């Protein structure tokens, strides 16, 4: 676990949403579900300490553009230091289209998210999902994950319904048991 991740969690656990970074196994599943092989533009929301970032970069096609948007300044600096080849934008996912326009990043074919959806209220979930849907290229894929177990609680069910209202196709992939806690990936198509 990175020092920046721990500091961020201790300072404001309600915005980080996890006590431990995601495993490489969950990162591999996120990348697999995101159909990156033909992507020309990829965005990551909430890279945290970069648990998914390295896997995304390793699977980008030659010439593809990549940017990550991180709200926490500590984590934005940390992930930028770990992956100097990546464009890390310190900002909020509720302003996704503004960030991409400012940075001249084309509509993404894939958006991968490590955001803590279950701790967001319905309005924030809807706001971010609308930005994702409105920004994603036609036929693009949005991938995010949920922890197995809490997904059955009211906040988890609300998020699933919000995904189904926003995207034409929502698929829940198998549980990744080699993650703490176990999690699964939602793969959504525009």
Write the SSE topology.
Blueprint: H1 3-11, H2 13-16, H3 24-33, E1 41-45, H4 53-59, E2 65-70, H5 73-82, E3 87-90, H6 96-102, E4 110-113, H7 122-135, E5 141-147, H8 154-166, E6 169-172, E7 183-189
Parallel strand pairs: 1-2, 1-4, 2-3, 4-5
Antiparallel strand pairs: 5-7, 6-7
Helix pairs in contact: 3-4, 7-8
Task: Provide keyphrases for this structure.
Rossmann fold, 190 residues, alpha/beta, 7-stranded mixed sheet, globular
Question: Explain this structure to me?
Answer:
It contains eight helices and seven strands. The chain is an alpha/beta fold. The protein has a seven-stranded mixed beta sheet with strand order 3-2-1-4-5-7-6, sandwiched between helices. Helix 3 (24-33) crosses helix 4. The model is unreliable at 1-10 (pLDDT under 50).
Please give a quick description of this structure.
It contains 8 helices and 7 strands. With 190 residues, it is an alpha/beta fold. It has a single domain (3-189), classed as Rossmann fold.
The number of domains is: 1
What name is given to the CATH topology?
Rossmann fold
Largest sheet: 7 strands, mixed
Looking at the overall shape, the CATH architecture is 3-Layer(aba) Sandwich
Q: H/E element string?
A: HHHEHEHEHEHEHEE
What fraction strand? Answer: 15-25%
Compute the gyration radius: what is it? 15 Å
Largest beta sheet: what is the strand line-up?
3-2-1-4-5-7-6
Could you name the CATH class?
Alpha Beta
Counted beta strands: 7
What overall form do the CA principal axes indicate? globular
* Structure annotation, total helices: 8
pLDDT < 50 stretches? 1-10
Helical percent range? 25-40%
Q: What average pLDDT do the residues reach?
A: 91
